[in-house]
Design a protein that fits this description.
The protein has 643 residues and is of the alpha+beta class. The chain is 39% helix and 20% strand. The chain folds into three domains: 56-244, Penicillin-binding protein 2a (Domain 2) (Alpha-Beta Complex), CATH 3.90.1310.10; 250-602, DD-peptidase/beta-lactamase superfamily (Beta-lactamase), CATH 3.40.710.10; 606-642. It has 24 helices and 23 strands. The strands form seven sheets. Strands 2, 3, 4, 5, 10, 18 and 19 form a seven-stranded mixed beta sheet that branches. A five-stranded antiparallel beta sheet has the order 12-11-23-22-21, with helices on both faces. Helix 10 (248-257) packs antiparallel against helix 22 (587-602), helix 15 (370-376) crosses helix 21 (500-515) and helix 16 packs across helix 19 (435-442).
């Protein structure tokens, strides 16, 4: 029995051993077959994959939304830009790659290495920008030798392009790279280091609409970092387009008229509140910020004494000068200090206490009422009106007219201006208000400070019979497909503190300014167009008694600023214009012609219609028989009667 059990146990172990060997043999057979399949049958494919086994995510920048004028004329678009970068993980050895690259693109190694040294060890797989917006010659050289430049990549990105260089730059604004502080602020979701964001103007105000949504690709790259194939792609979503309210023809005309001068020109539709033109001079080229500005270029901009980066239209603070007399007249009429029958005699000066306040016209204006005083800008008349009103009542009317606070235009850093009161001076200086200071305030001097956009809003309100409107520069926001996302409706801020009779008197006076030969702005008169306006000459500093009167002898910096505010047509206004020329001397000569030409351009159809009717009328008169006149009738009597 013992032998039987031993034989049975041996057979059992033998069977178990044979089974185990068969399993091992089967496993090795399968492994050998799999290795044969991978190395022989699929060997070439896996050899390729072994050399390019890196899968990466590649970001795709979204095209920024386009900007158009009111008639859909393109003002700002995007152009393709080629950016040169290096991926340190792929660019080995880095020093030799940079040496080759430097020789190909003719850029010293010393200019390429700082960017690499700055990011070395921090972002091995992330592209490091070496040069942005490279030229086509440089691109061609890199593409031809790309296999000798491991890790060097050229990416195509949309780059902002401002079509009309320097045109509307203070309105449109510009782009610049986002900084660390802005990234940390969380005000720019989706933005990364190196992204461009709006830093000024419309580009900043509507950054959220314009930027679009970033796309991406999952790509396979080879050992040199070159893309082998795109595995998956998510397209970028372009930003929304913006339609502005400006008229590009009017904008360009305004810029040409004020070129070479320091100042601002703004125009507005007094019915809708739409800004038709907004010009600040001198200007700057926004493309310089996008393409990359050298420190020398930046320093020349910020150190320029004429401050080209300042938007004078909304940030410039100036004494309103005689344009403020609109407010003084309004206050005087509403407070019953004066009426149309009230007259003051102007001998060319006014004595108050121990001081003599002079009128701009040394010989004086004689006896004038409120209409004459506004038309001829008589200082003496308004000295006395201001004296009767007092500074605080004047200030109340000025503030009720929208002065001394931002208008709410959709542009950053709008200045509030300053409307002084007795309490303000006491707080500011610790000194009580003096009566003589009220006289200066009444004619727009003294502590008064306003911006051109504020004076435009006031002028437009007078033109439209008293409705104060918020100036608007954005007309609509649309998707790329043309679907309207947002529109801006007319926004009323209130009404002027004046009744119908007061406004009628002021409007009659402003018409006289331009259309009466005694008016200070007769130079702005255009036959066939009823233009109303008001001049202003803002003193920069007081001149000494013995100062020379000759313009040649007075330094440029001491010349007064020139104002002119206007609207037209007088009976049914379609445009309001404000011009400020720094050190322009006189509002009539410096500002009047600018406003006149803008109005003529904007109302060209009305002017052409008038000329056509006038030509037809003259032709009719010439065709009349000569014998229809009496013997004693002058040859041109009929024409004189028509005029």
């Amino acid at each position: 029995m013992d032998g039987y059990y031993k034989t049975a146990d041996g057979e059992w172990y033998k069977q178990r051993l044979n089974g185990a060997m068969l399993c091992v043999l089967a496993a090795f057979t399968i492994l050998i077959i799999r290795l044969f399949y991978l190395q022989v049958i699929e060997g070439e494919e896996y050899r390729r994959l072994s050399n390019s086994n890196c899968i990466r995510l590649k970001s795709i920048d979204a095209p920024r939304g386009l900007i158009f004028d009111r008639d859909r004329n393109l003002l700002v678009d995007n152009r393709p830009s080629f950016d040169l970068s290096i991926i340190l993980k792929d660019a080995k050895p880095v020093d030799r790659t940079i040496e080759k690259l430097s020789g190909l693109i003719n850029v010293p190694e010393e200019e390429l290495m700082p960017a690499i040294d700055k990011h070395k060890g921090l972002m091995a797989y992330k592209p490091i920008l070496l040069a942005s917006d490279i030229g086509r010659d440089m691109l061609a050289a890199i593409e031809v030798h790309k296999f000798d430049l491991p890790g060097v990549v050229v990416s195509v990105k949309p780059r902002r392009h401002y079509i009309f260089h320097q045109s509307a730059s203070h309105l449109l604004g510009y782009l610049s790279q986002i900084n660390l502080e802005e990234l940390r602020s969380r005000k720019y979701p989706g933005c990364r280091t190196g992204d461009f964001i709006g830093k000024f103007g419309i580009e900043k105000t509507y950054q959220g609409f314009l930027r679009g949504d970033r796309g991406g690709q999952q790509v396979e790259v080879d050992v040199t970092g070159q893309v082998v194939r795109v595995i998956k792609s998510v397209p970028a979503v372009p930003g929304h387009n913006i339609l502005l309210t400006i008229d590009s023809d009017l904008q360009k005309k305004a810029e040409s008229l004020i070129a070479g001068l320091a100042g601002a020109v703004v125009a507005m539709d007094p019915v809708s509140g739409h800004i038709l033109a907004l010009t600040s001079s001198p200007s700057f080229d926004q493309n310089d910020f996008v393409s990359g500005m050298s420190s020398q270029q930046w320093n020349s901009l910020v150190s320029n004494p004429k401050r080209p980066m300042s938007n004078r239209a909304v940030q410039g603070l100036y004494p309103p000068a005689s344009t403020y007399k609109i407010v003084t007249a309004m206050a005087g009429l509403e407070e019953k200090v004066i009426d149309t029958e009230t007259t003051f005699y102007c001998p060319g000066h006014y004595r108050y206490g121990d001081r003599v306040f002079r009128c701009w016209k040394r010989g004086g204006h004689g006896e004038v009422n409120v209409v004459d005083a506004l038309a001829q800008s008589c200082d003496v008349f308004f000295y006395q009106v201001g004296q009767e009103l007092g500074v605080d009542r004047l200030a109340w009317y000025a503030k009720a007219c929208g002065l001394g606070k931002p208008t709410g235009i959709e542009l950053d850093h709008e200045a509030a201006g300053l409307i002084p009161t007795a309490a303000w001076k006491k707080r500011r200086t610790g000194v009580a208000w003096m009566g003589g200071e009220t006289l200066s305030v009444a004619i727009g001097q003294g502590y008064n400070l306003t911006t051109p956009i504020q004076m435009l809003a006031l002028t437009a309100a007078v033109a439209n019979n008293g409705i104060r409107l918020r100036p608007q520069v954005m007309k609509a926001i649309e998707t790329v497909e043309g679907k309207v996302v947002q529109t801006v409706k007319r926004e009323e801020l209130g009404v002027l503190p004046a009744g119908k009779e007061t406004l009628a008197i002021i409007k009659k006076s402003l018409w006289e300014v331009v259309n009466n030969r005694k008016g200070t702005a007769w130079i702005a008169h255009v036959e066939g167009l009823n233009i109303s306006g008001k001049t202003g000459t803002a003193q920069v500093v007081s001149r000494k008694k013995d100062a020379p009167d000759s313009e040649e002898e007075v330094k440029e910096a001491f010349k007064p600023h020139a104002w002119f505010v206007a609207y037209a047509p007088s009976d049914s206004p379609k445009i309001a214009v404000v011009v400020i020329v720094e050190h322009g001397e006189h509002g009539s000569s410096a500002g009047g012609p600018v406003a006149r030409e803008l109005i003529k351009l904007y109302l060209a159809d009305e002017l052409a219609e008038y000329k056509e009717k006038q030509s037809a009328r003259e032709g009719l008169e010439k065709s009349e028989p000569q014998n229809s006149r009496t013997k004693n009738e002058p040859q041109n009597s009929r024409i004189l009667n028509v005029e």
